[in-house]
Amino acid sequence: MAQPDYSAMQTAVVDGDVATARTLAEELVASGADLLPAVENGFVAGIRRVGDLWDEGEYFLPELVQGAEAMKAAMDVIRPALQAAHQQQSTKGCIVIGTVEGDLHDIGKGLVAVLLSANGFEVHDLGASVSIAAFLEKAEEVDADIVAASALLTTTMEVQARLVEAVNTAGGRTRRVLLGGAPTSRAWAERLGAAHAENAIHAVEVAEELMR
Ligand code: B12
């Protein structure tokens, strides 16, 4: 089996080339290669590079948006295949996940949701910019064991803090909160009394620990 062309995947995202990103994703799925390392070393590396170029003042908002579009096009192709490849029957626990209110970044959260679901969790993905009330309402409705929340902006980390507080003080059963997103850390989550995971694979391990 030929090694997936990580560099072409990165370039497609960095160039914001939606059509090429989609084609490369289709070829990747058809090749039967291990999808997770390819996503991480290819498309995700590309979107991180877009972030660096933005940091360096090389890219402005249109390029950031276009890079995200290419990334999303690739993930739309890969998501169902990733899910099918890892699918497990048993339900390890029920998780409500979303990106907190005011924050539109949902690529990483989406990856976490897919992997949790592929590894046997029942996952309810509420999308991006989710209000605390919506998290609580859904958690109650589906009797969630874990509420998982992403924040990619330093300004929306504070919403994670309020979410933890709201989950802990809501009536009814005890639920654990799992936090993530690039600016967050284990120390931050622990200070709030929540769990933390660095990435999608780690999120599965931590969620499994929380269910023990
Ligand atoms: C793509 C992108 C966008 C896209 C988002 C599209 C989308 N649908 O998601 C768009 C163009 C919309 C965007 C907008 C903005 N963005 Co932006 N964006 C990014 C970028 C380049 C990549 C983010 C990404 O998708 N990474 C790839 C994924 C796979 O990684 P990840 O998100 O970190 O997720 C992993 C882990 O963190 C973890 N994880 C994530 N969520 C969760 C949740 C749980 C529960 C767990 C356990 C784990 C977990 O697992 C994931 C998989 O491994 C980052 C730069 C960067 N290097 O992160 C900037 C970045 C996050 N953006 C930034 C900014 C400033 C903005 C804007 C304010 C720009 C503007 N002036 O308008 C707006 C904000 C809009 C808003 N209200 O949210 C800054 C934030 C700075 C800060 N300190 O707060 C960054 C860091 C860029 C920078 N270097 O300055 N952005």
Key attributes of the depicted protein:
2 domains; binds cobalamin; 9 helices; Rossmann fold; Methyltransferase, Methionine Synthase (B12-binding Domains), Chain A, domain 1; 212 residues; alpha/beta; five-stranded parallel sheet; 5 strands
Characterize the structure shown.
Helices cover 59% and strands 11% of the residues. It is α/β, with parallel strands linked by helices. It starts with 5 loop residues before the first helix and ends with a helix. Cobalamin is lined by residues 44, 47-48, 50-51, 54-55, 61, 64-65, 68, 102-109, 111-112, 148-150, 152-154, 178-183, 197, 199-200, 203.
Distinct ligands: cobalamin
Please identify the structural class as seen in this structure: alpha/beta
Percentage of residues in DSSP E strands: 5-15%
> Considering DSSP H and I runs of 4 or more, what fraction of the residues is helical?
55-70%
Order of helices and strands: HHHHEHEHEHEHEH
CATH superfamily of the largest domain: Cobalamin-binding domain
Total count of helical runs of at least 4 residues: 9
Largest β sheet strand count, sense and barrel closure: 5 strands, parallel
CATH topology of the largest domain: Rossmann fold
- What are the segments in which pLDDT stays under 50 over at least 5 consecutive residues? none
The whole-number mean of residue pLDDT values reads 94
Number of domains: 2
Distance linking N and C termini:
39 Å
Strand order of the largest sheet: 2-1-3-4-5
Q: Count the E strands.
A: 5
Which word captures the global form?
Answer: globular
